[in-house]
Amino acid sequence: METDRSPTPVIARLKEQTRQYARLMRIDRPIGTLLLLWPALWALWLAGNGRPDPRIFTIFVLGVIVMRAAGCVINDFADREIDPHVARTRDRPLASGQVSTQEALALFAGLSLIAVGLVLALSRLTQLLAIFGALLTVVYPFLKRVIAVPQFVLGAAFGWSVPMVYAAQTGGVPPLAWLLFIAVVLWATAYDTIYAMVDREYDLELGVKSTAILFADADRFVIGIIQLMLLLDLFLIGHQAGLGGWYLTGVAAAALSALYQQYLIRNRDPERCFRAFQNNNLFGAAVFAGILLDYTFAM
């Protein structure tokens, strides 16, 4: 005799709601987590002279995952009236009504508490820096209606893990940390401008501000200038940190990635711009590989 193994309505509902929460946190789209993770890894290896503290490494990797999820939730909360009008975002859980605003805020609060628990295991200076980092995470989504350059704020939010890592690993924030922070701001500004090019027509209609709109027809040129400044900054970082050939090879590979992105966005086709944005994962990986290999073979 066959038995009905289909889940009960309550269990089915819980499973579906959990899936929607996962989508709200972008667990199904890890590119954002990776773009946030690479700078943290750069900083962990540089601050630790190639040997990051295992406990600090674990806390920051978990923190990146949690804060990226929290950032996605608060971003969708801020954009809940905009996303239904954009083809790429109209099926997001909040925009489509799969998750309520109350549920989203509760999820954000839960993720924030986890982040607080993680940062409490770090030094006092790191905790103080984390307060400003949390503020950047919360404020950024709302600035898209206020300032013309929200991508710079996103860059600061994504790069704030750098001074936090140095504070946790070394007890201070030396000039090299701020040089690395600037690199992350430049990098995030470049790739998020490319990302904003995907939705530029929708953003113009809805009144959303972005550097893609601000730069207008000069977008590719300005992105190229920012990428050149980024590569110069990465070169200076390597020089100040005493890194050698392996690191420079990684930076050279990252430069090729930037050139490929310029090729993809040459006609401003939204699909190709999105591919160029995703290609930044390889950019970040190339720089980290250079750092890792340089420290590995210098030992």
Protein model, in words:
This protein is mainly α and 299 residues long. It has a single domain (23-298), classed as UbiA prenyltransferase (Tetracycline Repressor, domain 2, Orthogonal Bundle), CATH 1.10.357.140. It is 75% helix and 0% strand. The protein contains 14 helices and no strands. The protein is globular and about 60 Å long.
Topology diagram in text:
Layout: H1 9-24, H2 31-47, H3 54-78, H4 101-119, H5 124-143, H6 150-159, H7 161-170, H8 175-198, H9 200-206, H10 211-215, H11 219-241, H12 245-264, H13 270-278, H14 280-298
List keywords for this structure.
globular, Tetracycline Repressor, domain 2, 299 residues, 14 helices, 75% helix, mainly alpha
* Assembly level: single chain
Question: How do the helices and strands follow one another from N- to C-terminus?
Answer: HHHHHHHHHHHHHH
Assign an overall shape: globular
Annotated CATH topology = Tetracycline Repressor, domain 2
Structural class: mainly alpha
At CATH level 2, the architecture is Orthogonal Bundle
| N/C terminus separation | 67 Å
Task: State the low-pLDDT regions, or none.
Answer: none
Say which CATH homologous superfamily is assigned. UbiA prenyltransferase
Characterize the largest beta sheet: strand count, sense, and whether it forms a barrel: none
Proportion of beta-strand residues: under 5%
Helical residue percent band: over 70%
CATH class category label: Mainly Alpha
Overall structural domain count: 1
Radius of gyration: 20 Å
Q: Roughly what is the average pLDDT, rounded to an integer?
A: 92
How many helix segments? Answer: 14
Number of strands: 0
